[in-house]
């Protein structure tokens, strides 16, 4: 059945035929394409079926929350944070110095990004799985608030470096092979 022959079925009929509750008897164009409607075309209320009972899904959620609360990430390592901050600063300074966008403000942009990154590493980073996007958003926001050029580009360069190096460097530092 094409959509053109369905369209009259969607309009409100003025008079319904007793043999079919969906087709008007007075319409010659509709009666010429009269179709035997199966039950699938008629409205049938549907029921919601649970794959498991609501109480078992609640139990599963409680187990997941308990497991998440019991797992503790390692505390930040200040020596690692210092070393990684220096690597970060060197890379970002080299990367941003090559761009004309920053002109005389390269040192200031790198300083702000390095300070935010260092604070994050010293207070929150506890190994793979704890690298957050928040400090990089803060970098872009701080640079933009201070009217410095290229806040988004600097934050993008910073997060790209961090994704490629921080977790790997942590594993080397701690001797974890995973």
UniProtKB/TrEMBL annotation:
Q: Which InterPro entries match?
A: PRIN2
Q: What is this protein called?
A: Protein PLASTID REDOX INSENSITIVE 2
PANTHER family recorded: PROTEIN PLASTID REDOX INSENSITIVE 2, CHLOROPLASTIC, PROTEIN PLASTID REDOX INSENSITIVE 2, CHLOROPLASTIC-RELATED
Give the Low complexity compositional bias ranges: 8-28
Q: Which GO terms describe its biological process?
A: regulation of gene expression
> Where are the annotated segments for Disordered?
1-28
Q: Which domain of life is it from?
A: Eukaryota
Query: What is this organism's lineage?
Result: Eukaryota, Viridiplantae, Streptophyta, Embryophyta, Tracheophyta
């Amino acid at each position: 059945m094409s959509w053109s022959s369905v369209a009259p079925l969607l309009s409100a009929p003025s008079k319904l035929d007793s043999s079919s509750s969906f087709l008007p008897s007075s319409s010659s164009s509709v009666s010429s394409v009269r179709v035997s409607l199966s039950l699938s075309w008629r409205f049938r209320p549907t029921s919601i079926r649970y794959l498991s009972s609501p109480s078992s899904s609640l139990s599963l959620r409680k187990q997941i929350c308990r497991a998440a609360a019991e797992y503790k990430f390692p505390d930040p390592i200040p020596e690692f944070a210092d070393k990684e901050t220096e690597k970060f600063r060197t890379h970002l300074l080299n990367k941003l110095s090559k761009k004309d966008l920053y002109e005389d403000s390269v040192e200031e942009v790198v300083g702000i990004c390095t300070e935010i990154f260092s604070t994050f590493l010293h207070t929150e980073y506890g190994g793979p799985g704890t690298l957050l996007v928040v400090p990089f958003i803060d970098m872009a926001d701080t640079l933009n608030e201070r009217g410095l050029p290229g806040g988004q580009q600097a934050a993008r360069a910073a997060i790209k470096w961090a994704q490629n190096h921080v977790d790997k460097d942590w594993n080397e530092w701690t001797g974890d092979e995973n």
